[in-house]
Amino acid sequence: MTTIPPIEQADRETINRFQAEKLQHFIAYLQANSAYYQRLFRMHGIDIHSIRTLDDLVRLPFTTKEQLQQENTAFRCVPETETADYVTTSGTSGDPVLLALTGSDLDRLAYNESLSYQCMGMAAGQTVQLTTTLDRRFMAGLAYFLGARKAGIGVVRVGSGVPELQWGTIARVKPDALVCVPSFLLKMIEYAEANGIDYRQSSVKKALCIGEPVRNPDFSLNALASRIRSKWDIQLFSTYASTEMATAFTECAHGVGGHHHPELIITEFVDEEGQPVAEGEPGELVVTTLGVEGMPLLRFKTGDIVQPHYAPCACGRTTLRLGPVIGRKNQMVKYKGTTLYPPALFDLLNDIEEIENYVIEIASDEFGEDEITVKVGAALISDELLLKIKDRFRAKLRVSPRIIFTSIEEINRIKFPENARKSITLFDHRRQR
Q: How many secondary structure helices (H) and strands (E) does the chain include?
């Protein structure tokens, strides 16, 4: 098994010095190659030679997703002829944001995901089954494929959906682990039980979970993960990543947060005013992407509220760990005097076994107040189930949203729109005001 990089076992002072040196090279690279940041430095009168430590970052403006979308080409640091791959992520106005990657960026991506496999205890000679798509300009599938190859791990590319094909492949190839959206594991379990597949005795012992959380803020398994584990004694590894930062924070077997790789990314945590929060307090994650050639980002605001943890991990890594996403800053809901984030709603609904699937819609009423509608699909609809859902909301969140029963098929149609790369559970219509 690959050894942990030395910088990820160093003390904080050494890591800070290491990142400060990387930051100086990064700022110089932006000054030499990025039309966007050249203009930004000039507008704000920033002498790049004065940015020498991580503490100096607060003197620099943030980068937002809106800016990345509106001035996309100005962020490019290399000519189109040096672009090796294009990926996209969702945009703030409905149009996807295009990101250009060089060959070096793909190597960086492979290195990052090889570390993800390392964190979950995989080694050369093992095999991973990818249930994520590699097409449609989706970074995740590409990243995990490249990472597996770098780590010497075999890959079987099945793609998303189709439990029958997943289980058929598992029977033939006998992979050691899956890369998947955790809720899809429930679909696989359901199919296996309906078709007499002894999934508990399969070769698969681990799953790298993407797109959905599997832990609560205290690192206990959340409702979704608990439902999976009650059926299948499979090891679940949580991960946090985004296309813009081209980096993943993956937890190790100790399950106490996603590990930071300081050679790849600088992290900050800020409050609603953009000021640093007290150490250990939750805040919006802000990242600076080290080692990216094509479209590097300086102080990029992710919009995700997370809590950092700084104590060394029992696995030997001393870098900070990211707790589960508490919520997205722009998805905070004020409902009947209570502040809510969608993950709390997801966790509650995932804990009700009678619910087959659901989508959540957030809108504004005529007075500008937030409204929540939950559309629920269930095999057996009854007044008793409606009351159970409402009572569960009141008991755990103190408020109960509007509940509408809809057919399972209709909700699947809503969750999986045509040409979508992944399911959509939350629809926030407030942005259309």
A: 11, 21
